[in-house]
Design brief:
The complex is a heterodimer. By secondary structure, chain A is an all-beta fold. Chain A is 0% helix and 56% strand. In chain A, a hairpin with a 4-residue loop joins strand 7 and strand 8. Chain A is globular. Chain B is an all-beta fold. In chain B, the strands form 2 sheets. In chain B, strands 2, 4, 5, 6, 9, 10 and 11 form a 7-stranded mixed sheet that branches. Chain B starts with a strand and ends with a strand. The chains are: A mainly beta, B mainly beta. At the A-B interface, strand 5, strand 9 and strand 10 of A face strand 5, strand 9 and strand 10 of B.
Amino acid sequence: KNQVEQSPQSLIILEGKNCTLQCNYTVSPFSNLRWYKQDTGRGPVSLTIMTFSENTKSNGRYTATLDADTKQSSLHITASQLSDSASYICVVSDHGTASKLTFGTGTRLQVTL
Amino acid sequence: NAGVTQTPKFQVLKTGQSMTLQCAQDMNHNSMYWYRQDPGMGLRLIYYSASEGTTDKGEVPNGYNVSRLNKREFSLRLESAAPSQTSVYFCASRKDLVVEQFFGPGTRLTVL
């Protein structure tokens, strides 16, 4: 069964600090891996999408890495801001049509003063 | 562009009642999806529609029906609501040949 596991479940950091969120997956055959940001009470919003051949991708202060050999991904947030407080969800697709996705349970990040 | 819109935002039902969740997108996307999000679980696909006039079951379709009314609208119906259907429901859409899905703001449904 395809699975996506994320760690930690929750994280509290001070504003301005960096943090790294982890994602391990057992999805096969692999198509692409996405990271979404979900603010409380809102729908998920895409941050990055990486295919098998990409091992790093940035979106502003967000940098995602992918190791397809070990089936691991990370999301690094640089110089965190209060607005980064949200859940971050790792999603893996096993089909190019994107009609079937496996979602992780998310990491809940809280950025404090 | 409003993107993906969902109505209502909140709803409380009694067991056995029926209701329809509405979803509309103005991005001219062919594919539309319904997911549910429960505490401690990842989003799970209920139904999807690859184009107007077609629908397919996802991972957890039992207790739900869908209608792809036209290219813009994709509705989710609960015929006889059960407490196990208490959840947050998200609609999403996607353009052909593009993997990214765009999500609506969600409907929080409570079944008593």
